[in-house]
Structures are given as structure tokens and as C-alpha cells.
Amino acid sequence: MGWLGDNGMLFGLAVLDGLSYASAVFMVAVGLNLVFGVMRVLNVAHGSLYAIGGYAAASLSLFLGARGMPAWLSLPLLLLSSAIVGAILGPPIERLLRSMLGQEEVLQLLVTFALFMILEDLQKLVWGVQPVVSDAPVKVLGTVDVPFGSDVIPFTAYQLYLLPGVALVTLAGLAWFLRRTLAGRMIVAVTVDREAARAMGINAAKVMLLTFTAGAALAALGGALASPTTSLVPGIGASTIVLSFAVVATAGLGQIEGAALTALMIGLGRSLAVYFAPEFEVVVPYIIMVSVLLVRPQGLFAVPETRRI
Amino acid sequence: MNRNADLALALLAAALILGLSWAVPWLRFVMTVALAKGLAVLGILLLLRAGQVSFGHALYLALAAYVVAFAATRVPEVLVLLPLAALSAAAIGLVVGLFVSRYRAIFFGMLNLALSMVFYSILDKFYEVTRGGDGVRVATTKFAGASLSPEQQSWALLCLALVLAITFGAFVRRYLSSPLGSALSALKTREARLEFMGVPARRVLLSAYVISAFMAGCGGVLIALSTRHVTPALAYWTASGELVFIAVLGGAGSVFGPFLGALAYELTRTYAAALVADAWQMILGAVLLIVILFAPGGLWGVGRALVLRGRQT
Predict the structure, then answer these.
(1) What range defines the domain where residue B88 resides?
(2) Alpha-carbon distance B133 to A231, whole Å?
(3) CA A206 to chain centre
(4) What is the pLDDT along chain A (309 residues), one digit of tens a residue?
(5) CA A113/CA A107 separation, integer angstroms
(6) B238: which residues sit within 8 A by CB, 6+ positions away?
(7) Which residue among B51, B125, B284 sits closest to A279, beta carbon to beta carbon?
(8) Total structural domains in chain B?
(9) Per the domain annotation, does B275 fall within a domain?
(10) Do residue B117 and residue A242 have CB atoms under 8 angstroms apart?
(11) Residue B199 lies inside a defined structural domain of this protein
């Protein structure tokens, strides 16, 4: 683009990178948001689910490669591995959190922190501390030349179409599910008022189990989708969770479309920083969050609550 | 428990710590670090009374540690560095506190976390100034003008840590039983009622916040002086989580809790890390889960219950 001079190409790359990054962040943040809605606890272990989802997908696709199976299979495997992670880890964690429901918020939060510590080491024991790389899903789809003004940017089709595509489908699917189906509306009812929902005959325990498992699978899917684009190292869970906290707090708790927009904002902000001011890479999401909360203390899209007396 | 009993217990504990450190020399370092963290956790305890969890108090600990690391080359005097660094932490705590005291619950926790992560990345990314992830070595310091041998230095630090722990322990005990302390608990139960009584809730929280930043700063000074090397990892959000962990592990019901928790935490960590290098976090996580599920009063609560039962029979 002419008006950006020599930086045009870099700017284009940053935007494309930001889009694909925001897609993965959205998947994690929306899961966190759903879980917070029904259980009222910010799940710190959510980041570990992201990491484990990534590792599981990478292992499966490496296993597949070693067996000489066709590489396109690695794409559905991303979905499969995250469903497995969600189904195995979701219900037991949910059971534990549900047993804590009446307790103090601090204790509930700390239970998830304890789980985070346990899962972090479990992940190190299973996958070791060496970086794990598996880019089969990216290679299958090849690259696309994206015209950007007078320049042409070669970019992987995986990051250009698949990641944002999955995120959009998730967004639309969730919006439809929560507003149009009975199960979805039950989730919304429990989110708004657990006691009233129970009084109406909704099985809150079942709703929590369903939501938590779905949220865990979404986190794992976020990790699985991001895994081919980076190398997996210990600590990605810890850095992902704080980022999705930032997204959820900026958007306001319980907002799905809001989380998507905020993920986009933070994703773009961060990748622009990566290209133009690398020192600020980690800081940008928090600067966005702090400046939003200064103006709107409940988050960008939250509906203000009445004050209890 | 009454004041004299608490004081006696504190002195007894101090004597025990000194005795153990004398018998097992490597424990001296563990004890100093544990007391330093206990000081920071004492601040967390104040905020917990108000029902607020800060997932970012490592910011103040790391800030004071870095102040020591940078200032030690120019002023190599512990008795100057300690107030200097702790007051810097309190000053930043005041600025940050003016902002975060407007928020409650999750937002309070997350904003603290965000700000500490901002500080972390400043330490990590601005290599020219902060030496990035390599960290900064702390120059040798003097104690009240006297140059000490490493051995003497470690004893001096342990004693300093004990004095600070007892002083602040007594202070927090007094604070919590004062009207200001009661206002903190009221903030947790129902803030609006506190406001109706004409007590400015924000200022109550802010005062506790600044004090907690100051105590975390004192802890940071001790950690910088005893480890002699500071890294950005001190400010990472997991370090803040660790402080909240210790608060619950020790028990939030008494000023002894934080120090008991910190000692148990550091000892478990030292032993677990030596036995199973890759799984110490897992062991600590499991301990935390067990404490929360079966002993919500923390180690202090368990100990107290045992003593009380012993008295009844």
C-alpha cells in the first residue's frame, strides 16, 4: 500500500498474522467465558487445556506421519484430538469445581490454580520440555498469494482460511446454539440466575457438565488449531490463559460476540506490535485491557448490574 | 488468643527458626526466603480480608528486588536499601492502587495481573536497561557500615527477616483488630452498607493495598539480598499466584498463617524439587487441593484445631 511506504508489506503481514492469531485466542476466550458464565469461576486451568490440546494434536499428527498415512487426515484429527481432550479432562475437573460451588470465590479460583500447576507438570512429564513441532496441517493446504495494494504477500492457506473460518463457524454456531436451541437457552438461563433456573426445573448440574466439557474442548481446539503454526514449549498454557483473561475482561463477562471483537482487537494489536515494536509484544493486550477498563469498568460490552444492598 | 500468648509464640517460633538454621546451615537460605515471601503474603492476607484476590502482587516484590539490584552498586548499604526499595514499592502501590481500588472481585484480580505482566515484559524486553531474562546480579552490600563475610551476611539477613516478620506480624494483627480492619471485613460482606455508614470503601481498600505493596517490597528486598540475583521471573503471574497459594495454605485466619504457609511451601518445594525435578509443581498443586478440600482453615487452622481438641480432653 502506497501510503504506508516500504512498511506496506509488513503491515499486510501483521494484519494477516493478527487475524489468524485472534482466531485461536477467540476459541480459548469464548470457552473461558462460557464456563465463567455458568460456574462463576475463572478457570485458570483453561490455559493448560489449550496447551494439552495443542500437544495432543501435534502427537497425533506426528504419529500419523510416521505411519505414512495421508497428510490431509491431520486436519480432521485437530477436531478429534480436541474432542478427546475435552471429554477426558472436562468432566473430572467440572466435578471437582461443582463440589466447591458454595465456597468462597477465592478458594474456587485457587482450586483451578492448583489444577493448573498439576496439569502443567503432567504435560511436561508426557511431552517433555523440548519444543514439539508438527506442521503437517499447514503444509497440506499450501500457500496463497494475497494481493495487498501493489504488493503480493504469500501466506499459508491454513492461517488465512482455516483458522478464521473455524473461529467464525464457532461464533455463529454458538450464537445459534445459545439462542435457538433448548439446551443453549438452558445454559443462558443458568448463566443469568442459577437459582431461578433451578426453580424452573432446569438441571443445573447437567448444564454445568455440558458447558464445562464444551468449554474445555474449545480451549483444546484453540490449542490444536494453533499448534501447527508455532512450536509447543512448556509455558504456553500460562501465557495463553493471561491473554484470554485479558480478552474476557476487556469484552465484559458473558459476552460472545464481544469476545470475538475483542480477540480481534487484541490479536491485531499484538501482531502489529510484533512487527513494528517487538518490545511491546507482550504489553499490548494489557494496555488495551487497562485503557478499556479505565473508561468502562465492566468491560466493553457488559450490561451494568444493579448494586446489591 | 491474647496478645501475650501470640508474642510468646512468635518469639518461640523465631528461636526455633534460628536453632534449625544453626543446626542445618543450608536451611538458613530457605528460611530467609520463606520469611521474605511470608511478608508479601501478609499483604495478600489483608486484601483477602476485604474479599479481594490480587493475582499481581509479585509486581511489588520484583520492583523492590530490582531497585535493590540497581541501587546496590551506588549505595551498598542494606539499612538504606531496605527503606528505599520498600518505599518505592509502596509509592507505585499507591499509584496503581488509586486505579485498581475502583474494581472488585475478578476485575480487581485481573487488573493486578495485567499490570504485573506489563512490568514483567518491561523487565524481559528492555535488554539494555534490565539485562532481560539474564537478570541482574546484586552487588555485595554492607550491613550498618560493616562488610560481612558471606556466612555473617546470611545470618544478618535471617535476623533482619525475623525482625521484619515479627514487626509486621504485630502491626497487621493490630491493624485487623482496629476499626480500619473491621471495615476491611465489612467490605467483603456488603460494601454498600459500609458506604451508607459514611466509610469510604475505596480509601479503606487503598490503605490496605499500599500497606500490602510496602510489605511485598520488604519481601523483595530480602529475596534480592539473599539470592543475589534478580530475574523477570519474579514478576511473572505465576509468582503472584504462588503468594495467594501460600496465603490459603497457611490459613487466612491469623498473622501466623502466612509465615507457616511460606515455610511449608519452601520446604516442600526444596525437597520435592530434589526428589522429582519435573514434578514439584504437581506435588504442590496436589497439596493445595488437599488443603482447600479438607482443611479450608489452612495449616494454621489445622494446628489450632488440634491444640483446642487437646485442651478439651
Answers:
(1) 3-236
(2) 20
(3) 23
(4) 445 556 677 888 888 888 988 998 999 999 998 898 888 888 889 999 999 999 999 888 888 878 877 777 778 888 899 999 999 999 999 999 988 887 877 788 888 989 998 998 899 889 888 888 887 777 777 777 777 777 777 778 788 888 889 999 999 999 999 889 999 999 988 888 888 889 999 998 999 999 999 999 999 999 998 888 888 888 888 888 888 888 888 888 777 888 899 999 988 998 888 888 887 877 888 888 888 888 887 777 776 665 555
(5) 10
(6) A238
(7) B125
(8) 1
(9) no
(10) yes
(11) yes
ipTM of the complex model = 0.82
Identify the burial level of B115 via C-beta atoms within 10 angstroms of its C-beta, where 0-12 means exposed, 13-18 middle and 19 or more buried.
Answer: buried
| Residue to test with chain B: of A48, A110, A112, most B Cβ within 10 A | A110
CB-based contact (8 Å) between B110 and chain A?
yes
* CB count in 10 Å sphere of residue A255: 21
Please write the tens of the pLDDT for every residue from B247-285: 888 887 788 888 888 888 888 888 887 887 778 888 888
Report which residue type is found at B60: Y
Write out chain B residues lying below 8 Å of A290, CB-based: 111, 114-115, 118
Establish if B286 belongs to a structural domain: no
Amino acid at residue number B133: G
Do the domain assignments include residue B8? yes
Instruction: Work out the widest C-alpha separation in chain A, in whole angstroms.
Output: 66
Q: What is the pTM of this model?
A: 0.86
**What residues form DSSP beta bridges with A155?**
A144
* A201 φ/ψ sector (left φ>0, alpha ψ -120 to 50, else beta): left
Length of chain A: 309
Q: Domains in chain A and their CATH numbers?
A: 2-295 (1.10.3470)
- Residue A5: count other Cβ atoms within 10 Å of its Cβ: 8
Which cell goes with B128? Answer: 539494555
What is the amino acid identity at position B104?
R
Q: Report d(CA A309, CA A295) in Å as an integer.
A: 25
Q: CA of B84 to nearest chain A CA: how many angstroms apart? A: 27
